[in-house]
Write a structure and sequence with these properties.
Radius of gyration: 29 Å
Mean pLDDT: 76
CATH class of the largest domain: Alpha Beta
Number of strands: 20
Structural class: alpha+beta
Helix content: 40-55%
Strand content: 15-25%
Length: about 550
């Protein structure tokens, strides 16, 4: 297998598949950092999976957003392909879920079986021992129900109540059975309950459920606030042993939870297919969802000489069923089921499609039909570039009301982020009355005074005014030589970053120099070629903001 592929593998969460000469899947794995993981296989001193590597001649990979998505997709792909070198996850030993049952007073427990029973499932988890420990910690804090349904319906308090692990929800569940308000008051007083009726108890209990649910969506503030409140109360009452236990639970929060997706158990399923035209090819991405989870991904291409767009749609319909066409942000997406998508769902699907397509294009760059090469050639032609844009850089400035002004530079080599070339800059220029002009000049000077390799294309996050600064630099002989070797463009800002995607796209333009050094504009097309520039710009914006926040934290 050609190990040159390691140079193009990004440092992101991915699924990877080793294949033999017959295109059979030998092994499927996941990684937080794909480049580091795959490189380990080719370490000269490694004996890890060497028998598999002797048979492997190719590797595919699929980009995902989080490690949790990698867990779930890896599980499903292993079950589908049954790779011989995967010993785990082939049958029923899948990753675990946290299940919140569909009841007035729900149970919360760990399960490996997901069924369509109206419950809420928080997925996927793989370290079940830590997970069960953590759910027990939450019982100490929120005193939720843990007993089974048969015990709960007896309306009799168990040992959990007397050990302070439950607030007596089973007895609260029985309050409506007593017709007399006097009887309810007696029961409340006898059992020292906090509720007079069942409705009040259900409302209070669901506050706990929502806090737990939000916690696994990485909104930990509510849990942290409650724990701090109980620590203060325990200290005030001189219950220092309990305060110490709560402190230990508080310190374990970051160790025991990761960002997850909460999914309702609904029958949302079907195929989502997107077609894109890249050079002489139609490229299509098909994502197979079951209950709103990815269970398979298919990416392929067809030559335009062999098939037109209408016949390709017909071919796909034979395999996937009748397709419904929808236009989302000027991108055509096809569904074989009538599914209502809100804006968040649309964001997730477009993000997934772009990630899977990026994986495919990187892999295709090792073959004769180099689609990535075609995309970069399209950029060169569209924006009148002198150079083939192999090495791209982008700069952005970040400041908060003029203070802690910082600059960030992102760098792509062959569409893959090269973090060794990223740079951050402390801007010495004092911004007065929003003087971004001086700060941008300083940032450009610092970049090109550094004798690093010049990029083929240098992008400024700004508009016509920002690009026009370069004319002032061209008065200096040292910069004239750089300008002859490097292409410069700017991506125009939109009126507000928080407006709708549709509005945002309509307001973005590319600014570039013509042969007479006049600044010309062209609207972004938002095809796969322009996505390279958008991704580069977004990385520069993220990197500049991160450095500015880091400086602020030190104040």
């Amino acid at each position: 297998m050609d190990i040159k592929i390691l140079q193009k593998i990004p440092n992101k969460p991915w699924i990877y598949l080793f294949k033999d000469k017959k295109d059979n899947v030998l092994y499927i794995g996941k990684a937080k950092n794909l480049k580091n993981r795959v490189s380990q296989y080719f370490n000269p001193n490694s004996v890890w999976k060497q028998d598999m590597l002797n048979k492997a001649i190719d590797i595919d990979f699929l980009q995902v957003k989080t490690e949790s998505e990698a867990l779930y997709l890896e599980d499903n792909l292993i079950k589908k392909y049954q790779p011989p070198f995967n010993n785990m996850l082939k049958w029923s030993n899948s990753y675990a879920y946290i299940k919140i049952t569909n009841e007035d007073f729900p149970q919360i427990f760990v399960t490996r079986n997901k069924i369509n029973d109206g419950s809420i499932y928080i997925w996927p988890k793989h370290n079940t021992r830590d997970l069960k420990d953590f759910l027990q910690y939450l019982r100490y804090v929120f005193k939720r129900r843990a007993c089974k349904k048969t015990e709960f319906n007896k309306w009799k308090l168990c040992s959990d109540y007397y050990f302070g692990l439950c607030s007596g929800w089973c007895v609260a569940n029985s309050l409506t059975e007593f017709s007399s308000k006097e009887n309810r008051e007696k029961l409340k007083k006898f059992w020292k309950l906090a509720f007079t009726n069942k409705k009040e108890a259900i409302k209070e209990y669901w506050k706990i459920i929502k806090i737990v649910e939000q916690f696994f969506k990485w909104n930990t503030k509510l849990v942290e606030k409650e724990i701090k409140k109980q620590i203060d109360l325990a200290s005030k009452n001189q219950n220092f042993e309990w305060a110490a236990k709560l402190r230990d639970i508080y310190l374990k929060i970051e160790l025991l939870v990761e960002q997850q997706t909460v999914v309702l158990s609904k029958n949302v399923y079907g195929y989502f297919c997107q077609l894109q035209e890249i050079s002489n090819w139609f490229v299509y991405v098909i994502i197979n969802f079951y209950e709103w989870k990815i269970i398979d991904v298919v990416i392929n291409k067809q030559n335009k000489e062999d098939v037109d767009i209408s016949s390709l749609k017909s071919i796909l319909e034979i395999e996937l069923g009748e397709l419904k066409e929808e236009n989302i942000w000027d991108k055509i997406l096809f569904f074989n089921k009538t599914v209502k998508l809100n804006k968040k769902n649309q964001n997730e699907i477009i993000s997934l499609v772009n990630g899977f397509l990026e994986s495919y294009l990187i892999l295709e760059s090792f073959k004769d039909e180099n689609l990535l090469n075609d995309l970069l050639l399209e950029l060169q032609k569209r924006y009148k570039l002198k150079n083939f844009p192999y090495h791209l850089e982008c700069i952005d400035i970040s400041h908060f009301s003029g203070s802690q002004t910082s600059g960030g530079l992102s760098a792509f080599v062959w569409w893959v982020a090269n973090y060794h070339l990223y740079r951050r800059y402390k801007i010495e220029h004092t911004i007065q009355s929003g003087d971004d002009y001086g700060a941008l000049k300083e940032l450009i000077s610092k970049r090109f005074e550094n004798k690093l390799n010049w990029p083929d294309l240098f992008v400024i996050d700004g508009g016509k005014w920002q690009l026009g600064i370069l004319k002032e630099f061209m008065k200096n002989p040292w910069f004239k030589n750089i300008f002859e070797q490097v292409d410069f463009i700017a991506i125009g800002k939109w009126s507000a970053r928080n407006t709708s995607w549709k509005l945002k796209w309509e307001k973005e333009k590319i600014f570039y120099f013509d042969d007479n050094l006049k600044i010309k504009t062209i609207d972004l097309k938002y095809d796969q070629s322009d996505q390279i520039l958008i991704k580069l710009r977004d990385e520069a914006h993220r990197f500049a903001n991160a450095y500015r926040k880091k400086r602020e934290a030190k104040l």
